Amino acid sequence: MLRRQALKLGSVLLSALTLGGWTLFRNKAQQPLLLSARDDGDGGHFAVGYRLDGKQVFATQVGQRCHDIINHPELPIALFVARRPGTESYLIDLRDGRLLQTITSQPDRHFYGHAVIHKSGEWLYATENDTTDPGRGVLGIYRFEGERLLHSGEISTHGIGPHQVSWMPDGETLVVANGGIRTEAESRVEMNLHAMQPSLVLMQRDGTLLSKETLGQQMNSVRHLAIAADGTVIACQQFMGDADETAELLAIKRPGQPFAAFPVPEHQLHSMAQYTASVAVHNELRLVALTAPRANRLFIWDLDTAQVRLDASMPDCAGVGAVADGFVVTSGQGRCRFYDCRKAELIGQPLQLPSGLWDNHLHLA
């Protein structure tokens, strides 16, 4: 008991000491810090931080390819999470890119690319695969002790192949996109395409299941999430069925309503090449943005009316995130862009970020 109290006090003191520097760091920044994973032309993997004016804050080489990024609510650190089926995630100092810790997955587990940190700053939950029962989804639970993470346990995601996990606005309820696909250790080969079990799960932090819902198409893998401030859940899918079948690649769960397809025009669904990568919600402007990199298209809709605000060509569009006046979008092959969404006509402007080999996610800190 005394040891736990001492550790907690130490963590609070560390937060107090570093928070001042982090606040100063953030206040000095003229623009948000864009965090993402990138590869170079030689196959090297990097955790990177850039200002939107193109200034590189850091580019830290890491051993395995990363996917999503989540920053600590108080400390100037972020976790770059391993892309499935990676076994290493990286805790990075956001001030200079220093690698603070390499987090290795537990035996018979690998990461699925996403994680969340509790608002207290003490607990982290990461989507993982139980390779002894391939595809059985778990959330690995990790506890911060200063600027280090210690594994503390795990809970079930109540589904197969969990991909993204997010918080509901209460900061206590977890949302999990269970992709429904079984994969073995060190493999991206799908084992059960004709017996997939994708689902959207709401659960408590202690693992208690609150709800589990599915879409109509069994081979429509629920992958990525965006949560609006009012509790609206947006999910985007990757369809594993026949190439000529139309799939509901964007879905919505409004508060008190069932999980259902977002009313996307059929011609837009056809144009997505059955694959979406990243989704984001702009709370102030009430917009939802979606990238479809295999189809080289970016979409933006009105969240409330489903009116199409933008349907634009963008080569290998990857990550998308909301900023003050619109959305930032990275590209794996072309120029990264900022879309100003304040007026009726949405205007895209090239950013001075380096082109090429960006991952499908970005995070703005």
Automatic annotation (TrEMBL):
InterPro entries, alphabetically?
A: Quino_amine_DH_bsu, UCP028101, WD40/YVTN_repeat-like_dom_sf
Q: Which domain of life is it from?
A: Bacteria
The regions listed as transmembrane in this protein's record are: none
Put simply, this protein is called DUF1513 domain-containing protein
- Source species of the chain: Pseudomonas fontis
